[in-house]
């Protein structure tokens, strides 16, 4: 009996517009397999740099359904020669046409930075049925023209045998949608509910996403996107499969247990260490993310040769430091299997003398399309906010993810004279003065413009 480590890699392929499958209907709800629904406003965004992880391991899929027609989909790499997809993606695809079919990891329109890989064979889950709990398939690909396997040119994506997901947490789904050119697009949203093998979310998807990886905010694969749900013809939620039980075991069966389930490759060495906001007693240390074939689990921080802290982020704040003292910092990256990188080169920084403080850098303005992680500080409407966890397109001041930490704008006072361009706060709203004013109430006088 072969012992399987409960950590592995998953690949999934996207929905094909050329495959027609019957949907199931329960009462007024319809569980569809085309994965074509944008829920409300379209919040998807393009991934412009597909050479970075985890995007380089997500592949464009092209399968021919006849000698002249092909269908498009999405895939992500799980083993040296292995990918995984939703079963309905490959259902009814002729084996005679596989020689023309291929996957291209990290494809970005006409650019294929990691080349193409021809498909050798495709295997459906033993209990496969469209829209059901085991809508999975494995794809095996041939080496490229240089004799390299797909797992030799791009990292493998890591998954865990997780029986549960966290309701209310973020789900992120990148893929190659058919309503865009051959480009990688992504959407994110909230996990709404879950069953034994499936879970639902409000992430926008469309044809081409089915079979794509579902990530959490740590770039950990937590599922495979497969379907969408409608109620009386209106899109309500999309859904995917959990990688647990027979779904996990099905994928594990087609991987090399000696190398793909037992990771022995160490992460890259940490570089780019830098200190900001240095004071007499504190500083913020940041660094470039290390790379790994499975994924980074944590970073271990060493101060003057002694391990003092651990974090999953690429930055950490040190407090209670001694004034006017030089500290030496070094970092070790650790992957999901416990493999450690070489310790980084030492980085030294001296705290300021007592009573001499460096003015903190002014935070950048909040941008709706930018991703922020725990600890990031932004300014919005004259106030500063710190992110509690991963967030994107959630407005500071109105979303729980943001914690108000300061206000750079004073409250309006009737006894103070203001000149054009001055900004004040009055009854929770910000106003800008058009010209000189004194005693004129913001919100009532024309001299003030609401911000």
UniProtKB/TrEMBL annotation:
Enzyme's top EC category: hydrolase
Gene3D superfamilies (alphabetical): Carbohydrate-binding module superfamily 5/12 (2.10.10.20), Immunoglobulins (2.60.40.10), Trypsin-like serine proteases (2.40.10.10)
GO cellular component: extracellular region
Active site: 88, 135, 210
Transmembrane spans: none
Keyword list, A-Z: Carbohydrate metabolism, Hydrolase, Polysaccharide degradation, Protease, Serine protease, Signal
Molecular function in Gene Ontology: carbohydrate binding; hydrolase activity, hydrolyzing O-glycosyl compounds; serine-type endopeptidase activity
Keyword flag Secreted: no
Enzyme Commission number, as recorded: 3.4.21.-
Domain annotation Fibronectin type-III: ranges: 266-354
GO biological processes: polysaccharide catabolic process; proteolysis
Family according to the record: Belongs to the peptidase S1B family.
Name of the protein in question: Serine protease
